[in-house]
From TrEMBL, chains A, B:
Belongs to the class-I pyridoxal-phosphate-dependent aminotransferase family. Keywords: Aminotransferase, Pyridoxal phosphate, Transferase. This is Unannotated protein. Its cofactor is pyridoxal 5'-phosphate. It comes from freshwater metagenome. Residues 63-403 form the Aminotransferase class I/classII large domain. Homodimer. InterPro entries: Aminotransferase_I/II_large, Class-I_PLP-dep_aminotransf, PyrdxlP-dep_Trfase, PyrdxlP-dep_Trfase_major, PyrdxlP-dep_Trfase_small. GO terms for molecular function: pyridoxal phosphate binding; transaminase activity.
Length: 418, 418
């Protein structure tokens, strides 16, 4: 590298941290992120990350898709594109959503840089500082981080093995309104929830949609895992039942690959223009190359079969995890039984602090995400999220066994009966 | 498409527009965007857009780069990546910035989804509603849109053929502070400015850096066109002279291709963590595929020669435009003489409203961007931006000739001597 500072400057540089906007105080490293450096060490069995497993993806086929794209349509693929997203891909997205009962038009789809960007844009359009967002307890760490940056107050609503509990939602709405705060929307991950691993039942979907209409609260339905069911298909999307009061977020990160960063939002007409303008301000336009690579893959490849093979791969790993949990975890622990997706949520006796336990787990060469990461309010200290998506079944068994040993030792140490 | 709404809903959906955040009122379609639908008709010579010309890019070579990437490194390229960006690419970015005299470390580089995202993130971190951002008069429409969304007040500072005028900067700072408003930063495009086409002289760079230090204002240097000089290299980057008080934004959109959406920010250490966290909240991580495609291209291909051939292509087009302006535009018009980049800024007699003139230009089958698009304060009504980057030299001559005729007719109509 050449070049250097060639001048002695007079005056001091501006103190950047003193100039931060108010919202910058809410930009904090998530617990899950600071973990990744440790969890990615090859000697550690990581049950922490949510990376999809790409071992079942035929790379030669994907290489042909991207090579052909540049050769046959390079002038378009490598150029700037539309802020809303490529029309061809938006059509294909509608076909894909139809698998979950959604009737939609490509005009109402906005392509985003992963569905994380859709979350960011929706927050930007709706959240004033102090506004309340209702979310499941626990919920996706990336959504909590974004809501915090826009200075929302997050109110958690209880779940059980059938997902968000309608009575708890009614209660949370009443309690929030009693304090005079404004509720902006309900954020929900109905299928194979991250981190809960549970699926919202069909009957509850209807009931929750009715509650939200009655209370004039709209629903943000985040559905990255919907097509990854092992025990039959998931219930129809909430958006399939209510096209006017649900903003739907989808993603190709788990059904194809995350490396292209392509997700989307399907929104009511009244929101579309604002969403496109907000996205243009944020990134100008989503990558034409990424969009057309996904589009080419959907056109030319047997993508339904590929999703089926992903499901097979994840099912074997889920089974390995549930079997090992039965075998190695103490009686005082309980966990969810996911019918799809990537995650199991484990609840330990309340005396166990899963964050404090992490260093011992790392010594035992296994990593997980402590439950507190998934709560905006400090709860979750005796829970953990275990991911089965990435390691081999053998490694999963090994990791759960090590972790079981760490937990058992901790319980003995604390005199908790097992 | 299958599936439909199967239930009669009770209650009304939430009224979305009533629930918008305060900032949403500032999310407005830019004039330049609404133009593009018309300007992209094939019968129109578009001197409006800023799309780089990819005709000199060897597509076969690019097809090999992306195919090889998937075959040899697909598991990484198609997976989630680091929020800060890929370490290999960040090293290569530092090598590229060294061409403009910048000494930097890969740890201080954050890869973004185009440099538009860097602008968005910097705005998010620094701008509270009502804060002032100083910008050139005129300035990049995409930056103005982003600053508006974060509810900044934009104060324009005059330029001449040597770029931003230091005395005007001093004056703007004093006048702004006299009203009690807080100045957050100076945003400047020093090379081949968009839309002005002018370049900030080396002496003025130093003077402006000194003013900003003395006034404790930091500088955001946006430099997408810096390597696209026709008449010799541009002066060293401002960041080369002051590593502490300048945030530098770069982009591969004009030097390689825009379709991968890869840009970057080089920032002082105090800002890095916040910027990474804000980016993770916005998009989780930039596309590994896009980054590694750019990285592979930089490693394996003669990219300096490729930039030289882009320069040759743009120089011919600039020459065609300047010659045709001399030939076909009325005496009452003046324009800048860009030494690089994509744009010429034309000033007409003040009686001519370039926005009102657009329909007549479209009838004459030529499009441009009216000057008001580049001002936050409504100025610029007798100016226009002409781009020479995309059309062939023949089409440029044809377009400028038609536009000259439209302007001449308008001047006669208004009784302005020519």
């Amino acid at each position: 590298m050449s070049g250097d500072i060639t001048r002695i400057h007079t005056g001091s540089p501006a103190n950047l941290t003193e100039r931060f906007a108010h919202r910058a105080a809410h930009m904090k490293q998530s617990e899950i992120r600071s973990l990744f450096a440790v969890a990615s060490r090859p000697d550690i069995v990581s049950l922490a990350g949510g990376m999809p497993n790409l071992s079942a993806l035929p790379m030669e086929m994907m290489a042909e898709v991207v090579g052909k794209l540049v050769r046959e349509n390079g002038q378009e693929a490598l150029q700037y594109g539309s802020g809303q997203g490529h029309p061809k891909l938006r059509e294909q997205i509608c076909e894909m959503m139809a698998l979950e009962g959604i009737s939609s038009h490509p005009d109402d789809v906005i392509v985003t840089t992963g569905s994380q960007q859709a979350l960011d844009l929706i927050s930007r359009i709706f959240i004033d500082p102090g506004d309340v967002v209702l979310v499941e307890a626990p919920s996706y760490v990336g959504a909590l981080g974004t809501f915090a940056q826009y200075e929302a107050q997050v109110v958690h609503v209880a779940m059980d093995e059938n997902g968000l509990i309608p009575a708890a939602l009614r209660e949370a709405i009443a309690a929030t309104r009693a304090t005079g705060r404004k509720i902006k929307f309900l954020y929900v991950i109905p299928n194979y929830q991250n981190p809960g691993g549970v699926t919202l039942s069909a009957a509850r979907r209807t009931e929750i949609l009715d509650i939200c209409r009655a209370e004039s609260i709209f629903v943000v339905e985040d559905n990255p895992y919907g097509l990854l069911g092992f025990d039959g298909p998931s219930p129809n999307a909430m958006r399939a039942e209510d096209s006017e009061n649900v903003l739907y977020l989808g993603s190709f990160s788990k059904t194809i690959v995350p490396g292209f960063r392509v997700g989307w939002a399907l929104v009511p007409d009244a929101l579309k223009d604002k969403l496109v303008i907000a996205s243009e301000s944020s990134i100008l336009c989503p990558s034409n190359f990424s969009q057309l690579a996904i589009s080419g893959y959907l056109s030319d490849q047997p993508w339904r079969d590929q999703i089926a093979s992903f499901c097979g791969l994840y099912q074997v790993r889920r089974d390995a995890m549930l079997e090992s949990l039965d075998k190695y975890f103490p009686q005082g622990a309980t966990w969810t039984k996911p019918a799809g997706g990537f995650y199991v949520w484990v609840t330990l006796p309340p005396e166990i602090d899963t964050k404090a336990l992490m260093p011992k787990a790392i010594v035992a060469k296994v990593a997980y995400v402590p439950g507190t990461a998934f709560y905006a309010d400090g709860l979750g200290s005796w829970s953990m999220r275990l991911s089965y998506c990435y390691p081999t079944p053998e490694r999963i068994r090994e990791g759960v066994k090590s972790l079981g040993r760490v937990i058992n030792t901790e319980m003995e140490l604390r005199g908790i009966s097992n």
